[in-house]
Every structure is written in C-alpha cells, then in structure tokens.
Fold each of these.
Amino acid sequence: MLVTGVARQLGGRFVRRIQRDPEVDRVVAVDAVPPEHHLGGADFVQADIRQPTIARVLAESGADTVVHLDVTGTPLGSGGRATLKETNVIGTMQLLGACQKSPNVKRLVVKSSTNVYGSAPRDPAVFTETTPPKSLPSGGFAKDTVEVEGYVRGFARRRPDVAVCVLRFANILGPAADSPLAAYFSLPVLPTVFGYDPRLQFVHEDDVIEVLRIGSHEPRRGTLNSGTFNIAGDGVLLLSQCSRRLGRPTVPLLLPAVTWAGSLVRTLGMTDFSPEQIRLLTHGRVVATDQMRETLGFTPRYTTAETFGDFVRSRGPGLLPPEALARAVDRIAALPLPGSGHPPAQSAD
Amino acid sequence: MADAKVIPFDDDRSRGGAAQRPPRRRGGAGSRPPGVQPAAVGEVQPLPGVAPAREGTPGTRGEEPPRQPPQGPPPRPADDGTGGLERRVASGLAFLRRRLTGDYEVDDFGYDEELTDQVLMSLLRPVYEKYFRVEVKGVENIPAEGGALIVANHSGTLPLDGLMMQVAVHDHHPAGRHLRLLAADLVFVLPVVNELARKLGHTLACAEDAERLLGQGELVGVMPEGFKGIGKPFSERYKLQRFGRGGFVSTALRRGVPIVPCSIVGAEEIYPMIGNAKTLARLLGFPYFPLTPTFPWLGPLGAVPLPTKWTIQFGEAIPTDGYPPEAAEDPMLMFNLTDQVREQIQHTLYKLLVQRRSVFF
C-alpha cells in the first residue's frame, strides 16, 4: 500500500493505524518533507509527488492500493498557496499518471472534500453526490478539489479495472485538527457575517481514519467501496450554536466588510482565510450521507455535535464558557421570585 | 413559491399582542385555567403585588414590565397565579439556558423547532389572530401523518400569506403539524431574512429539497405562482397566474403524496399594488418594486398592510399514489393534474369571495 501526504497528522495516524490490519503487508509512506511524528513500521520515502519520481517509487513498491491524502487546504510549514495548489493538482496528475502505468494498482482512494459543492444561496439545502453545484468554486482549495476530482474521474475511465473511491469529507475536526476552520474556531472572538447563520457539518478525525480504511480494503459483503461518497457526521450545527458551545462571542459584520477584512488578512499573510471559507461561513453547506451508509456501509461513530464537542474539549474554554452561562442562569432561577427579572436574552436568533 | 418573513412593520404591536395572548395551544400547563394546576401551590407564598406572568416567551422578554394582564384565563387568586408564574419562569429560564449554551437541535434544513414554537410563532400569532383575523376552514383535509404537498395561491406583494398559512396549520391542525414552506431563492440571498426563513423551516423551492422533505414525511407548502402571483397588479386580484411548470405535481407524484389545494382570501388587498417601479426593482435586484396608494409615499408607515379579513380554506386532498411510478415523467398527466389543482383553488377562491361580506370584516 502506498500512502501520500503522511507528513500531516491525519496521514501519519492513518499509516500507523492501517499497519495493524492483517490485510496490509507493507506500507510505503510518501511525502515531500519528513514527518515529525513516527510512522510505526512503515517505510518512509521522501519524494515529491509533483515530480515524475513518484512513478518509480510506485513501481518499486509494487503497491496494489494507493491512498492519496495529499489534497489539503493548509500549507505545511513554509510554502504558500501556489505550492499547495501545485501539490494538490499537479501532484494528483503525476500520481494518477504513475498509477495508470502501474499494472499492480487495483485500488485508489482519494481524499476530497465537500468543498466541491461550493456554497451558494441558490443551492438546494442538502447536497447529494449527484447534485451539480450552482456556482463552481472560483479558487482556492475548493477549486483544487474540483480539478482533482476531474482528473480522478478521467483516470477511472481509462483504468476501469481499478476500484476508485473518492471520499468527500465535510469539515474535519478533532483534537488534532489543523484545518482553516479549526483555526477560525480558535479565535477568541468569532467574526461572523451579519444576517446569516450557516449550517455546518463536521466529521471526526477517528471517523476519517475508519472510512479511509474501509475504502482501502476489499469491500465487505453487501457493500461497495468504489464511487464517490459524502462523509459527514449526523446532524447539523448552526454557526451560532457552535460559538455558544465554544463559549466564544461572535462579532457580526456586514458581508462586504468580511470580504474586505478577509482579503486584508490574506494580503498580510496572517492566515489563509480564503473566499470560499467565507462563503461557507455565510451560506453553510450540508451533504446527504445516505450513500455512505447504504453503499459504503459506514456509520460514523461521532455525530456532528459530538465531533464539535470533542473539539471544544480540546480547545479549552472561551471568553463566555457555556457552563458559566448555565450557572448564571441557574443562579437567577434560584433567586426568590419577586425580583426575578432575568437578563435580556439575545438568544432569540 | 416566494415567501419571506417580514416582521418589521409591526414589531411593537406583535410584542404587545404576545403579552396578552394565551400561550400556544399545545404549550402545556401554562394556559390551563387555575383549577387544572394545583401542584406547586402549597409551597409558593402568595404574592399579592406580583406582576402577572407574560406568556409565550418569557425567556426573551422577561425583563420588560408587563403591559397587560393575561386575558385568556380569568383573573385568578394570587397563589394560583404565582404557581403558574413560577412554572413559566422556570421553563423560560430553561429555554434561556438551552439557547445560551447552544444546547438545542436544528434539522438538516436549519429548522429550529424550539425557536419557531417558542418565539417566532408567538411573534406571528398576533398578526394572524388580531390583525388579519384569519378564519381557517377545512384543516381536516390535511393528513394527520405522512407527507403531503399543500399548494396555495400567492398574493399580497409581501409573502405574508405563506407565513399566515404556516401559523394556520401550526395552530389549528389537530395533529399539531408543522408546515415547511418552499421559498424563492431571493429569500435566501437577503441577510437576516434567510436566517429567519431557515429557522422557520423554510427551504429553497427546488425539486431536491421538496422531495427530501416529503420523503421525511413532512408537510410541505408551495405557492407555484411565485413572483407572478405575489407581484401582480391589484386589478388582477384573485386571478390565478400560471402554475410554474408544474414541477410540484411531478414531485408529489414521485413521492406519492397527496396534494392539498389551499385558497387564501384577503391577502390580495393588504398592499393594493397600483404600479411597479421596474427600473428601481432592477436596480435593487428585486423582481418588482410595488407602488401602492401608501407606499412609498408615506415612508415606513406606508408599508403597514391594510387590516383585511382573511380566510384560508384547505380543499379536499388529491391523491397521487394511484399512479404508476413512471407517471411523474408523463407531461400530459402532469398538465392535467396541475390544471385540476389550479381549477380547484380558483373555484374555491370565487366561492369564498362571494361569501365574503366585506374586505375588512
């Protein structure tokens, strides 16, 4: 088995986990930079998937399963958006080219994202795998994933003997998550777009590892693991709910101000807060996971709310911890009745 | 199809009204006459001067001094009143606590049942009961369970008719069903409006969302005339426009759910649209910009709707489960069914108009 993108937390965890499976003899872990975490007994090969050397690595390893995790939204260490885009798109092209030439490859798993659907007010409320997006993402990571999926579809056409599994993950959260959204939720005060309360869905890191395992093994009886699947925890959280559960106050800003501030922050290079991220936090996105349950045969262990709860626990309390608020309300409830004017609630939204 | 929830025009009235209306029908113990709630009486001290509780949504308006005594139950002895008050305060605080800590659930469409029941409905109800004095007929035609598609006429410049229909179903249906409206995309583009629409359980009028909701066994409301109906001039009142392309029929056919025609009388006259400032509308990105005898001449005051008397009549359901699965692809059948629904609504409209004594009473 060959795994790309192992220098990231998720890739590292997946490599460590997959070696414990009896079906896996040998794992070749590939990334352009050596990982800081250990990879268990996997063989690390330092190779840049943007270079044709990846074909040699693949041929020498003789891998029958390729798990492509090097499609990400955040740059690792140095290197800006341009390098990231190259790794995402050119890297995928090179890797797919290598796979096409290799007669051994029988299975390909690609990590994609529900970003491919974009976020627009004119979209249906719930995306299924076949929903065409009303407005294609115009740039950033979302556009990368759209292009990556395009190349993967082309590969699947040319190599019908290879089982191709594209996993569209909702926002991945967990104690170790390093996504832009996790960075956003770590801000002391959350800027939001005035007049919008987006619906968000999360998937837990543990579930990501699990579903990647399902995708990279032989399908279990009665299931099929080739195709495109939305992967998300059950249920939906509104951004306002998220902020209250985190205990971080929100600052509603007008949409033009948010867009402007976003581009300012990007220019200053403080954080890669892309326009598509702002669109997600304006209009939200919810995907249907029926295919994941019925065809792929996977049931996530964490719901969206539980995933978020786990993330909250790992981040520590915010400025307005929900427990403190709850205690305050309880104290008011314990007051003798006559004076019980409870505080005004902005909770109505 | 269009419906936006626009509450701004009578905010204070609805608040005043909320204070005096009895809590919603299914609201539990709060509304019962004193004899029904003997619990908590013993340990509560009688507080003669205590303000009567405000009902509905104590959590959001608890700090205001009550303006009117509750009018539902007759004035009751002080100890009974405080028993009810304490319970209401407690439930209000529990509500406040859940809201502040984010401990509530919304569905995939962003529908916030708790907020709708406790807050948004109590804001709309005064408009429904006191302002438009809506009379509801034939609510028993809505099935008590399972999916159904309610198809209604659309009028009134602002989509208040959709909101009133939602209150009508919510408050009058014996099974206490919630109506999920399909709204125009404009609703989901506008800030604040989209947020409230999602929380009220509305979603975009598209086949995917409608099918998903019907598949979940929800009651879905649609107004197929769309902007053509709501933005038609006053001279064409109660003349049904084209029913879109009949997409609602094929959606109902695919899910095999009954179609319930619904006729709304009274909404046409709330803003008599005598003109349409097309250039201004194009500039603002709206499908039309209404000119009424009062708007925009009187400014915000002109945006107050006329207090017409409304009637909402739900007609007999048209079953669609008898058709073969490929029927949804049959254009002839679709047109026939669309016409049948349209005719039925139009006929009921004329019948209701004949029965109506006056626009305002």
Amino acid sequence: MFISCIRGLGRGVLGVLEMLGSYGMFLLTALFWLFGSPLKFRRVLEQITFIGVKSTVIVLLTGAFTGMVFALQVFYALSKFGGEALLGPTVALSLLRELGPVISALMITGRAGSALASEIGIMRITEQIDALEIMAVNPYRYLVVPNMVAAVISFPLLGAFFSMIGIWGGYLVGVKLLGVSEGTYFGEMSNFVDMKDITMGIIKSLSFGLIVSWVCCYKGYFTEFGAKGVGKATTQSVVISSVLILIWDYFITSISL
Amino acid sequence: MIIVRDAYKSFNGNQVLRGLNLEIREGEMFALIGRSGLGKSVLLKHIIGLMRPDKGEIFVDDQNICSLRGKQLVALRQKFGYLFQEGALFDSMTVFENVAFPLREKTALKETEIRERVLPELEHMGLKKDAQKYPAELSGGMRKRTSLARAMIMQPSIMLFDEPTTGLDPIIGQSILNYIQLCHRRLGFTGIIVTHDVPRVFSIVQKIAMMDAGRIIINGTYDEIVSQDNPEFKQFLSGSIEGPLHYV
C-alpha cells in the first residue's frame, strides 16, 4: 500500500516534470526560430489582425463598463470618509497597473487564445502541420513565432486601450453622473499617476501576451485524438492561460512594489 | 533510389514494422498494398522522415534519412511531394493559394511568375475555374486534385501517394489515377502509391509490394506475382474473408 502510494507520487512528479520540460522545449524552439531566422512579417500582420484588431471591440466594451462600475464602487467607498477627490487617481492607478492588463488579457484569451489553440489543433489533426513539414516549411517559424510576436505586440496595445476607455468610463460616472468636478478627476490623476505605473502595466501585458500565446500554441500543436482532442486542447489552453495570468500577475506585482 | 533496410517501429507496444525491407528504383512507380491499419502510411512517413524507425535504416538517394537533422533533412525533403489521404489542404487558403504555397515559401519567384506556374497546373488538373474556392467548397475529387497539384508544383523527384483514390467514386478514382500517370510521364518521378484500389492501380505501376504483419510478403511485377500463385495476394484481390489473411 505504502509502496504503491510512493510509486503513484513518483509517477505524478515525473509526469509534471515531463510536462514542464515539454513546455520549456517548445518555448526554446520558438525562441530559436524567432531569433535564428527572418521573421515572416506578413504572417505577423495577419495574426495581429486576428489577435489584436478583432479583439478591439470586446476589449473596449469591457474596458468601458469596468471603468464605470469601478468608479461607482470606489466613489461609494471614498464618500464614507469624504475622499471623493481621489476618485480619478484610484480609477487610473487600478486600471493602469492592474485591471487593464489583467482583464484585457483574460478577454483576449477567451476570444483569440481559444481560437488559436483550436485552429492549430485542427491543423494538427488534419495533417496540415505534417504538410508544412513535408514542404520543408518549419511549423514553428510559420505558425508559432508569428502568433507569439503578434500577441506580444497586441496585448500591451489592447491593455492600453482598456485602461484608456476605462478611465473615460470612470469619468462618465464620476463626473457626469456623481458630480465630481472634472478638474479634480483629472488633476488628482496627474498628481498621483507616475510613468512607472504605466510601465508596470505594459510589462504585465507583454508577459501575459507571451504566456497566452505560448500555452495556446503549445496546446494546439500537441493536440491528439480528433475533434474531442481539439475541444480538450481549447478548454485547457483557456483555463491554463487564465490561471497563469492571475498567478504571474501576483508575483510580478509583489516584486514591483 | 529508396532502400528500407530491416525497419522496426512500434507504438505503445504495438509492433507495426517488423524488420521491413524494400527497394524502389529511380523513376519507378510502385504500389504498396495490404490490409488497413497495418503500417503502410507509417512506412511512407518513415520514408519522408516524419517518423523515425526504432531500429533499421532508410536510404533516400544514398542518404540515410534517419540520421539527418536540420538543414540536411530540409534539403532532402525538398525532393519529395506527398499526397495525403485526406488532402491536408490549408483550409484558410483558396485552391490557388494552396497550390502557390510551396512556391511562395520555398522560392524567390515574383507573384506574376507564381501565377504563370500555378494556373497551368490548375488547368492541367481541371481546377482553373475553382481557383478562388476554399477547400470546404470542394468535392472530394477536387480536394484530391488540388492536393495533387500542390504536391506537383515543385516538380518533385519522389512522390508519395497515400490512398489517392479512397473515398472517391470509381470514375473520379480512375481520373485521379490517370492524373498520377500523366504527371509521372511528365516529371519522371519515383512514385510510391499506398492503396487498396486493386486491381485498377496495377495499370499505372511497374512493381507491386504487399505488406502484412509488418513485413513485405510479396514483391515484384504484376506478372511475377501472378505467376507465383500467392494465396495472400489472391485473397486480397478477391476480397474474400476466408484465407491466410485474417480480419484485423
């Protein structure tokens, strides 16, 4: 009984190590092709359109409502001790440092990450990736690298859009609806928000872009067992990416404060 | 010339190749027949280097493909064309883009030159009017012809056909075989056709090999094989359940 438990534990640990090694090798191979061969700009542009441009509406929509509801909640809390003047900087700091990068990354993962994993997964099970290899076209260079580059470019841009529209949403609620003066909203914001807050948001978005494209490409690339396998890979890619975004967000925030 | 020497391969304990030996001469059209699920497609993937044998060697034009890596493998693969069983067309691209894909990726040709190469190939395959259609809009035969055109566009010296007529009606199946024969005459490639389409395929090949239990059990010209009066070959040809080959 005891021996079988130890064996089971050992198998589990080996399985996790093997999986981590496989993820690591996948990333290293992608980085090798990124820096070791000319970039396919046309493919990168196509993927920026797919990951970035086509996610803009959903990101703007969620950004606006996040900013609006956040302003409502923060105003309620600040009014308890007469600190309504701090509404602008609270909304801006929260969006730029935290909500903008994280929520936009989660939204893009749901929209583009899942589609990315399923698209590559379908290419795998219908032998399209084998066809690339047979035509002597490296699948990492053609499929994985453009997606990673596109994600690393798109995520910070969309995160910035999210924060910008969120601040505007907060302005609508705070200034137009709840009566905070426009000068206070923006004046206090410029007093409290530093360049490092904006940089922190950009760094977070960059790293989320890498994490999401890495996980989604990996899951798609190693899809098995037909349509069921594609479904499983898609679900796992969204779940793993989302969890990793939140975990990585905690660590990067804790070391930056 | 392709030489497979004593190749072994297993998947999760299931032995698919068991010391397989095969030799195919340059310019020869070769049919590989045998029951389904016994490793014919696996053998093709070994020959092109998509899979590696657990043991044994595979030589393509005197190069051991099992020991090649990186640029050497890429260079050797450029000699190959491959017709996939399901076509493996890129579903986000049109017929024209699919056929033009190898030229765009592997040559420095200008777009006008690519058009000059692709359109005659599409015309040759009877696909010119369907050039702007996507794979989802094509029939099975059209998909096979598109895949064939894509495989031929780089004028390979070795062509591998994985069940080119499976799932097609007899007339379209015959037209695909005719296309293959025409392309062989035009380009003079070494060809291996994995198929169950017997006896029809015998009219376009010079040699036939039959695979069973992970080995080649019959190999020769059609006349040689018929003269051997081989029971496995006769059973496979007749499609009888009774005989030395068992239902898998």
